[in-house]
Amino acid sequence: MEVEKQEHGAVMESNGFIQPSKSPYSSPILLVKKKDNTWRMCVDYRALNRITVTDKYPIPTIDELLDELFGATELHYKHLETALSLLQEHKFFVKLSKCSFGQVQVPFLGHIITSEGVKVDQDKISAIESWPVPTNVKAVRGILGLTGYYRSFVRHYGILGRPLTALTKKDGFNWTSEVMSAFQQLKQALMSAPVLRLPDFQSPFMIECDASSSGVGAIFIQQEHPVAYFSKAFSPLTRFKSAYDRELLALVMAVQKWSHYLLGIHFFIRTNHFTLKYLLEQRVSTLEQQRLLLKLMPYDFSIIYRSGKENRGADGLSRRPTSGDFLHLTLPLSTELFEVVAGLLEDPYIQSKTQLKSMEVEKQERGAVMESVD
Questions:
Q1: What beta strand segments (E) does the chain contain?
Q2: pTM of the prediction?
Q3: What average pLDDT does range 27-46 have in this prediction?
Q4: Are residue 232 and residue 311 in the same domain, yes or no?
Q5: Which sequence ranges form a coiled-coil region, renumbered to this chain (predicted)?
Q6: Residue 346: count of CB within 10 angstroms of its CB
Q7: pLDDT tens digits for 292-303?
Q8: Residue 69 needs a FRET pair 20 to 30 A away by CA distance; which of 97, 115, 202, 341 works?
Q9: What is the DSSP letter of 343?
């Protein structure tokens, strides 16, 4: 390696890229082999970075970068002409082996961009396919981190990954047949991930959402083609809420998930729960419903009803067969009052106050009787 470093440095010095220096400060270098078996010189600036005041600039998310690619085919020729003209004007040259022109698909940040949309990079997916069965919590976090990068491509990802996520808690590592089944299903879902459409901000957006006893499922749609998937498993407490409350929660969660697309424009929400069609005209009956409704106030949307048989996409996202689960359990509001009264009657402090009050009332009644006798 030292020989390669010396040779690489001599070539760069002869080309005028570097020059000898006697500075007391320096950073180590290392050579990394590229795909064409040539060497790339890298400088280890970790020590310098630790004392450097960085720029306060937000790093864009993957979704933001992918969103900018819609219409890239039409703009590509114009950008290419501009770039080549500037290179020619300033007498710069490019390495032909590093250039690709007129490609039908290109790799980009772990994704493959095509004329049809975005799909997962099969080179990355092959690593998931050959992923060994996790034997500890650290390995489980590793597979969840890798698969989570592509969760927008996977229907009911949140529900599929629920058994694996449970292993990362402090209850102990227990690899069961249910967890193994979830592990295999998650890998299979990524191997057959669909092509997602790039969002077109000139066309209307639609959210198709549904809730079951297991969780929430939603699809972000344009022209009946999926742009992204979203799902999340419900907590044990949420699973026992009424069907209406779960459907309303699913609607709010889906809107908040894609709020960066929806704020400031009119969009559509498609649901298979008929009463949600008149959501904005209904009388709110609980504080939780009022809280959820307030979260929808900044948005401009219309709700479209679609029966469950036709709303198969989101309906399937929210469901996963689990034996012994309630579909829903609705408790009457009066039950809460009964529980409060029962608790008050058993409370020692309340019991003592009740006895004192009873004694006072009894004393007053005796006094009233004595006055009437006199």
A1: 29-33, 39-43, 105-108, 111-114, 118-120, 206-211, 215-222, 225-233, 266-271, 300-305
A2: 0.57
A3: 86
A4: yes
A5: none
A6: 9
A7: 888 888 999 988
A8: 97
A9: H
**Distance between CA atoms of residues 330 and 124, nearest Å:** 45
Domain membership of residue 6 as a residue range? 1-51
Is residue 240 situated within a structural domain?
Answer: yes
In a domain, 82, yes or no: no
- Tens digits of per-residue pLDDT, 131-190? 888 888 888 888 888 888 888 888 778 888 888 888 888 777 788 888 898 888 888 888
Query: Which residue in this structure is represented by tokens 């009803």?
Result: 305
CB-facing half-sphere around the CA of 357: CA atoms within 13 A:
6
Is beta strand 111-114 parallel, antiparallel or unpaired with respect to 118-120? antiparallel
Report whether 153 contacts 190 (CB < 8 A).
yes
Q: Report residue 340 CA to chain centroid gap.
A: 39
User: How far lies 215's CA from each of 158, 169, 316, in Å?
Assistant: 8, 19, 11
Among 153, 171, 192, residue at a domain's last position? 192
Q: Total structural domains in the chain? A: 4
Of 191, 205, 198, 199, residue with least CA distance to 116? 198
Same domain, 211 and 188: no
